[in-house]
Design goal:
Oligomer: single chain
Shape: elongated
Radius of gyration: 16 Å
Number of domains: 1
Strand content: under 5%
Structural class: mainly alpha
Distance between the termini: 36 Å
Number of strands: 0
Number of helices: 3
Length: 108
Amino acid sequence: MAVDWVATLQEQADLVRDVAKDVDNALAASDLSVEQASRLYRMVESGAQDFDRIVELMNEHDLDESFIDAAEIIEDTWTNLSVATANRLRVMRGLDPIDIAPDDRNDA
């Protein structure tokens, strides 16, 4: 069965956009508990891993560069959400936040 990559990527972009809104709202909550932050982090990581499996499938096909570019944007969003949730959890536990270097993929 052929995969409709346009629909798949649009669906994934919509999903990560919705998750990002929810994560932003949750992280902004002053009453967020460590347990809630931990669950939020695990949920984000699960979503990122699910998308990684889609990227692996994409890599098995000779796809147009536009599909790869779209997937990289979605991947970057999952990465940013993961770092944001991990940092909130780390700070809540009294640890220093993770400092990630900016992505220089587009500088080439």
